[in-house]
Amino acid sequence: MTQLQDILIKNPAAVMTGLRGPRARAGSVDIRIVNGRIAEMAAGLVANPGERVIDARDSVVYPGWINTHHHLFQNLLKAVPEGMNQDLQGWLASVPYPRLNRFTPQLAQIAARLGMAELLLSGVTTCADHHYLYHANGTTETGDLLFDTAETFGMRFVLCRGGALESASAHPGFSKTALQPETLDQMVGDIERLKSLYHQDTPDAMRRVVVAPTTPTFSLPPTLLRELAHTARGLGLRLHTHLSETQNYVNFCREKYNCLPVEFVAEHEWLGPDVWFAHAVHLQPAEIRMLAQTGTGISHCPVSNARLGSGIAPVPQMQEAGVPISLGVDGVASNESGSMVGEAHTAWLIHRAEQGASATTAEEVIHWGTAGGAQVLGLGSVGTLEIGQAADLVIYGLDHPRFFGFHDVAIAPVVAGEPIAVRYSMIGGRLVVDDGVIPGLDLERMRAEAWEGVQQLMHVVD
Ligand SMILES: [Zn+2]
């Protein structure tokens, strides 16, 4: 982790704040960072002795993106040929499931290192990883390695502790391998261990633990779903899981439980401002109202949803109803990229394609990917650029022909999308990308380790 230093960002072309409405833009103000926090935002600030000055001409400043749904281990499973043209079920059965027992903690760490490097170089400063490589006879060490890896990069990290329980042995992920799901005691014991070692309650926490069974429907019996909610709330931890990603998911719930997925989770005490769901692609208006009324959030993952043909989440309707919305890249085995710029660009476009040009604005999409993420994760000190907030911010360089000719450069990263370069990124005032590079990162070694990992995961005998 780099040293904390006071920093003055001078002369950016524009500053986006992550806030809504007229406060979404702060103009071209300078930003002073003292002791890891934003101390001043005003034009014409003069450098103090000992301050590092960053010249941000031809650049725009954004709050660091907050990625609220990822599966970092999938960074070694990009473009697996047998899963390229499959829907969610076929893809799960042919890409991650047959390889679950191949992921040693070391291989998962190589994947996580690769994923975090890509996240940082797209401007992400907080990552919530839904990590579900847990089974009855396996090690729980990978969770610890993920926290270690995040600390090496200086990244704010939320471990959503996944997995499946007991009667889930019919789960296709387990029937594909010889793996057995954990018992409730195993899962809860590890959650308590992780909480005592890593979890911070503060609004600027660098480390959080979340209770996150892989799905509420397929991964555990309903009684244990409710019990896990009680466990999480007893420990003061948030709740996260996948919900209503495909029409099949809705059909399963209707057939097995005679209700809609949001009704099912409501019945088992899985709604509230301490819960957020990944995807929520297939929702009825009544379900949207339930999410809004309870303050339950979502992680919108439009690229993965498009890639797997799952559909387009009714996010403009959710926003209208007041559902807290955030963005997630999902695992890169169903995205091929872990870039939040790519995700934001797609989020901006895809609802307009379906619902018309007023369905999204660039400012709203920036809000979802920054302040919205902070809200669903309960990290009140990040996600916006305002005085007093932790200095989690990214400086995008616009010195490339594709960014010349803009009438409004403030929104260029979202509306033009990639390629775009992060010149600087900081987390709590510490530079995690400095002059375009991650300090100390050995890219050649990373490439070699990734290639070696791919070899180990490539051939699967079904
Ligand atoms: Zn996912």
UniProtKB/TrEMBL annotation:
Keyword Hydrolase set for record: yes
Oxidoreductase recorded as keyword: no
Annotated InterPro entries: Amidohydro-rel, Metal-dep_hydrolase_composite, Metal_Hydrolase, MTA/SAH_deaminase
Native organism: Pseudomonas arsenicoxydans
GO MF entry, a single one: hydrolase activity, acting on carbon-nitrogen (but not peptide) bonds
Amidohydrolase-related domain location: 60-432
Highest taxon listed in the record's lineage: Bacteria
Family: Belongs to the metallo-dependent hydrolases superfamily. ATZ/TRZ family.
Keyword terms: Hydrolase
Protein name, as recorded: Amidohydrolase
